[in-house]
Amino acid sequence: MTEVKMTVNGKAVSGTVEGRTLLSQFLREDLEMTGTHIGCDTSQCGACVVHVDGQAVKSCAMFAAEADGAEVTTIEGMANADGSLSTLQQAFQDHHGLQCGFCTPGMVMSAAALLAENPKPSEAEIRHYLEGNICRCTGYHNIVKAIQAASGQDVAIAAE
Ligand code: FES
Ligand code: FES
Fold this sequence. Notes:
Ubiquitin-like (UB roll), binds FE2/S2 (inorganic) cluster, about 30% helix, DNA polymerase, domain 1, 5 helices, alpha+beta, single chain, 5 strands, 2 domains
């Protein structure tokens, strides 16, 4: 067992983990932060994406011990300080970028990482960046629109 310490959504946390404990497991089971979803556990689906030191990472593809000392941000850390949805989250809602919502935490975290490095991505750039995030419901169209809208690009609000 190893002791790990990291900062999660601005808060110092620590725990004792096995060498094989995945970061996704540590977040969900030890910290009880279940916003990070697990869709496959084999690094295929992207539902578990979080930010580690500012980089989008599939948390099922990283051991918790590897994140020792890191700054981690999860979907729980994406809302505004007053608890309201961030611009990106609101855009997912406004543009119907989700149906079942299972992929949504990972989509939002990947999209946030994309917008941090490319504030006005084209549709092609968004689609390319989201290659590691699988959505079984939406056909991606409204997710792409939501990300374009969050980046200040003009897209029509989806019909109710
Ligand atoms: S649960 Fe991590 S990629 Fe699917
Ligand atoms: S909204 Fe259902 S998997 Fe994406």
